[in-house]
Each structure stands twice: as C-alpha cells, then as structure tokens.
Design goal:
The protein is mainly alpha-helical. It has one domain. The protein is 75% helix and 0% strand. It has 7 helices and no strands. The chain is elongated, with a radius of gyration of 21 Å.
Amino acid sequence: METANKLTQSLSSPIGWLLALMGHLTPLKDVFFLLLLIVVADFLTGLRASKKKDIPWSSRRLRKSISKMLCYFGIVYLLFEFQNILNIDFIASYKLVAGFIYLVELISILENMAVITENKVFLKIVKLIRGKVKDDDIINEILNEKNETKTKKNL
C-alpha cells in the first residue's frame, strides 16, 4: 500500500511524469542517441561545407535539421510502440527504419565531406552512390540539391 501511495505521489508531479517517460523510453536510448549524433554531424558538416563555398548560413537549415530530427524520433518511437502493442518480438521494425535513417544521413555527411575536402575518395564514393552525375561535376550538383528552394507551385 505504501509503495502504491509513493508511486501515485511521484506521478502527480511533472518530474514524476518525465521520469516515467524516460523509463519507458529506456530501450530506445541508444537508437535516439545515435540519431541525435548523426543529425548533428550532418548539420555541422553542412555548415562547414557552406562556409567553404561561401554560401550564407540561414536559420532555415537549423529549423530543417531540428524538424528532421523530431520526425526521425517520432517515427522510430511510433514503430517501437507498434511493435510492443502487437507483441512482435522477432521483427525490430524500428531498428530497421533507424538503420535506413542512419544510412541516409551518412550519405549526406559523405556528400558534405566531398564538398569540404574535394578529396577523390569522397568524390568517388558519392559518385558510386549517386550513379551518373550530370555534367560530371559532383560538387556543384550536391550544392544545388542542398540549397534548392521550392519555387515551383504544387498543382
């Protein structure tokens, strides 16, 4: 009875709810940490690539990185809950999706490193991933894609 009272008291405060949420998310801590790490690495290498090519910084990129990270966390969490609700232990769908996200972000980091260093190794890796490059100028193609804004209206 005393334990139930203490549990009720702890959940009646915001800190109690936060601790309960953190306890619930404990299985995801490593996945979330790596997601955070790779998005921050992509953001920082993107800033460095922008500086190298004299592209002005904007708050749009920071907002994009933050919203991207929140979306990544959200989809991984939803898949984790889906897996737990259905008691599916043999398929770690949230880990598969997180792995795909890591791969996408890693490719973006490699593209940024190709722009920063212009090293042949990075350029060859990016060309291998992308396939045929227009005008055989991988640096400009990467920069054009990353700095492209939506000017076309949706029909």
